[in-house]
Amino acid sequence: MECPIPNSLPALSTGPVRILFVDDDSDIVAAAGLVARRHGMSLTGAGNPEAAWSLLAERAFDVILLDLNFARGQTSGEAGFRMLADLMATDPRRVVIVVTGHSGINVAVEAMRGGASDFVIKPWSNDALAEKLKRGAALAGARRAAGGDGAGEPALLLGDDPAIERVRRMIARIGATSASVLVLGNAGSGKSLTVDLLRRQRAGEDAPWVEIGMHDAITIAVLEEALRASRGGTLVLDRVEQVPRSVQPFLAGQLGGRRVLAMARDDRQGVRAALDADLLARLNTIEIELPRLAERGEDKLLLARHFADRFARRHAIVPRPISEEAARAILADDWPDDVRGLCQAIERAVLLAEGERIEIADLALGDSGHGDVRPRAAAADLNLDRAEKQLIEAALDRHRFNISRAADELGLTRAALYRRMAKHGL
Ligand SMILES: Nc1ncnc2c1ncn2[C@@H]1O[C@H](COP(=O)(O)OP(=O)(O)OP(=O)(O)O)[C@@H](O)[C@H]1O
């Protein structure tokens, strides 16, 4: 299961130039694809913004060709401008070339003001299009070189829910600053992804980045080490609601001289109850609260479709649409394991579905399917290394590969669990 590993997405490679063309007209996309191929570039089409975001979350593209209208008869360009604004807000280094009809010169100028690098007017001359794509790719290379490698890695906080929209705008606004941020939300709701996106806004920076998971046995010595290592850079405190009261005054007094990004698996009220006012004041210059997936309405389906596409590609399986009945069930479920739970359910469904669509039965909703898994062999086998592997396997199984929960049960940080999983080849 790949859902719990937010950093596992591919980095930009140095292969052929990759272009994403967002346009609902498949003939136009095919025509542009021919031009691109003739010039040694690869072009992928997306029929609408939703499909485009799904691709962008999964793969890196050098240039985005963006038509401004996505439905027959639409001419206002409104949907395209919204997508352009979101593209630039989520990564200001993107290279976007807008595509407009022949009367669209004013529209093109407006798009350039909105961050587009260039425009193409339909019908285009193939040579002019190829030239613009090559120039766009060169610009993308230059922006990546200036911004560091991380800038090109895809990772997106997807969703149309107004609360998620606000989080994206907040990340765009504060990402490059040194403000401390407290990210609140249910387990699996996207806190680590949010922190990762904040990090990408400062890609290329050479300052230290130190992450540490809090738990009730954390000692001042461990904190001192993390503080020393993060001086002049960023300190990420995961599960900050678990910092013991006894060390809170020490921590509050030592956080200066670095940016602090803290995550709490709790809501505002819970965090206020768990932390001293002094520590809280040091952490929450900016507070970002991720809503539960259960409260995100249609986003459940948007994310489900995204994960279905992602895992079909990752496992080289023909993509299957989600049946209407399954879609209704996805919308009705309250997803206690949040986005991670949905991601895992869809990956399982993609792997197990046998029909033409992903059906409700493939989702195994409300069925953990694992029961009580005990590390039976561990007691009999006194070899420490093997016992460790068995315990980790049992914890991963019990928590359906939810890394955070497995790590909690094992008394490890997520990073420590990942390291041990790698050691045992899990
Ligand atoms: N809005 C979103 N769009 C796309 N993917 C998402 C979104 N939110 C979460 N995910 C994905 O869901 C998974 C869980 O998210 P993440 O690890 O950020 O949760 P978390 O809140 O940090 O959980 P925990 O409290 O357990 O650490 C990750 O694979 C992440 O990439």
From TrEMBL:
Keywords, comma-separated and alphabetical: ATP-binding, DNA-binding, Nucleotide-binding, Phosphoprotein, Transcription, Transcription regulation, Two-component regulatory system
Keyword rRNA processing: no
GO biological process terms on file: phosphorelay signal transduction system; regulation of DNA-templated transcription
UniProt domain Response regulatory: residue ranges: 18-137
A GO term, aspect molecular function: sequence-specific DNA binding
PROSITE patterns hit by this protein: RESPONSE_REGULATORY, SIGMA54_INTERACT_4
Domain Sigma-54 factor interaction: residue ranges: 157-351
Organism: Stakelama pacifica
Database matches in InterPro entries: AAA_lid_NorR (IPR058031), CheY-like_superfamily (IPR011006), Homeodomain-like_sf (IPR009057), HTH_Fis (IPR002197), P-loop_NTPase (IPR027417), Sig_transdc_resp-reg_receiver (IPR001789), Sigma_54_int (IPR002078)
Cross-referenced PANTHER family: TRANSCRIPTIONAL REGULATORY PROTEIN
Entry protein name: DNA-binding NtrC family response regulator
Chain positions found as 4-aspartylphosphate: D67
